[in-house]
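We modelled the chain as a single entity of 392 amino acids. Its sequence is:
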Amino acid sequence: MASPRLETYCCPNRDAATQLVMNFQPEVFCGVCIGSASISLLLTILQLLPKKGQSPRKMPKASSSSTILLLISICDILGGLGMIFRSSVWLGFPDFIANISVVNGTDVWPSTFCVGSAMWIQLLYSAGFWWLFCYAVDSYLVVRRSAGLSTIVLYHMMTWGLAVMLCVEGIALLYYPSLSSCENGLEHAIPHYITTYAPLLLVLVANPILFRRTVSAVASLLKGRQGIYTENERRLGTEIQMRFFKIMLVFVICWSSNIINETLLFYLEMQPDINEMPLKNIRSAALITWIIMGVLNPMQGFLFTLAFYGWTGWKVDLKWRKREIPWESMSSSTVGENAYPSPVNYQSNIHDSKKILTTDSQQTDEAISMLSEGNTSSDERLTRSSPIYQGW
């Protein structure tokens, strides 16, 4: 699981609250992490692979949103691999891990493994948070027709730049001036926790606002496409709204336990003695949420694919197939049907005006299709209700 306590545990003079959770049934906890991460990893890959008997996902030629969704899944997969590796070493080499607690030890490899594995997990999940924020921004910009595939370069710069900068800064402040002298006070730990949870809190606060604005903009687009708001448009808008809701629901389920656990542990850190009897219920709640984190954090990858694409099935098709861009075939068929020029100028002007409206409607359909990508029923309804499909 992803928690700043992993980096804090690398300090030989770690605080009592970190010692409490990290020493609570470590074999069971590592086993839970390995099991949850392995299941999520396999199911996530299964979800992303093409399936037999299903047509390739229809998407616009330039879709930065679909690229972002794939990158979120990749971050979850790599983060899950880091959890599996770290927990496997923890279980398989207990003597090696025990050297982390040795102050002024001569063997630097245990501490190097501890810091490196914790940073790998933290960096990738932090990058996943930034990509999720970029997805919300991009969804809004796509509807406003202010985004495209070229903006993915800016998203890469922002996501990886901020993730690396905050991770390195938090680690540097935590381990200053050296690994053996870190955690001498909260002034070392608090900046590290802030840099870790800043992107998580940003997604919790900003994404619902951006998603709500996007849904409102989609409704305006659907109403303005043909001047009417039919049942098909209403259902499509509702499905896009439900997709955003599922994404935020998965995020809250997977990471709310981290916030609760961190709040409880910080409260325990401020107590003179965390082993006092009045604090028993708080200690129990902290340990319970610690185990819950080990289950839910790795499952984010698979749950996100369900929110993005729905259940795609078990039958995997490993044969390569060229994806069909429906907009190209529709546009070519439309041009073919209207290839003969009109002998009357008035009719030619009508044809030109319809052509402009068709192009505008096509751009609207492409923007909405990016948001409903992966939902076959939505794509079919969108195509049937499109003026391009109707022939104009």
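As a brief sanity check on the tokenised model: Residues 21 and 377 are 47 Å apart (CA to CA). The chain has 14 helices and no strands.
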